[in-house]
Known about the structure:
By secondary structure, this protein is mainly β. It contains no helices and 28 strands. Strands 1-28-27-26 form a four-stranded antiparallel beta sheet, with no helix packed on it. Strands 2-3-4-5 form a four-stranded antiparallel beta sheet, with no helix packed on it. Strands 6-7-8-9 form a four-stranded antiparallel beta sheet, with no helix packed on it. The model has no long low-confidence stretch (mean pLDDT 91).
Amino acid sequence: MRLLRGPEAEVVDLAFSPGGTAIAAGFKLHPVHLWNLEAGISSPVRLATEGEYSPGGLQFSRDGRSIHWRESNCHRLYNRDGREYFKHSFTRRNLAHRSVMSSDGLRVISQHGMPDYCLVYWRLTEAGWVVSWVRSIADVAVESLTLAPDSCLMAMIVRSAIGERWEANPRQVEVWDSATGKIIGKADYPYAYAPTLQFAPNGRQLVGINDMTVMVWAVPRLNAVRLVRNDNRKDFTSVAYHPSGLRIYAGNNDGTIQVFDTATWECLDRFTWQIGRPKSVVVSADGTLAAAGGDNGDIVIWDVD
């Protein structure tokens, strides 16, 4: 077990490099921090930012040599070799309200508000970023947007924007073919709070958390949601799949990380770390390491086996 200390703030995002030799952390109201785990150095590199950090987009490139994340007005990329920064705002007639980038950094889906009210699918080519499709979302409010690991599917939580009191309209989960922008699955969403959804590594399962419940859907048909209740009165705070897809790690407001079997949803294990309430959790790409970040800036890394 290894403990890292960042600024005294919530650790809202974590990402391992592909080989597990580095870890990046996104903090609330603070810049991204990067630790070189292989070098055994406990002090991080603080990466420069221009806008406020936006949770949900922190990841390494497939070769581990660059890191990208979302800020309030752009996507930001840091090249570890050249120590250079790059950014793109994915602008149409206004800035992107929300955006998600594929794990290979070659595709982005951005959400735009007034005056466009649309989703845009971007591809990185030799000539730069180009638009593959645009889909109107003028009649719905999009509250969550995520891509599957292979980028073939995207999932959203939406509600109809029709009516004087549209904020009270029921929510739905939708799964789209990301290459075509076509809806291929739809289901009722059972709660009022709309968290970030997460696909299983093989793209065949979708999970979200709401208070004391993990919600599970089969993809792409989105049959009736399975509700996995916590065994205490505390809320779940974050989830992360093991790369095998056989287990999921769930942060809990009681200060623990629970491990669930994704077939039976039996709780297999529970880890207790002195990092406060865990706000983020991640598993390395090779499945050997896991990490959790607390509400006080502390990050714990442990061997999964």
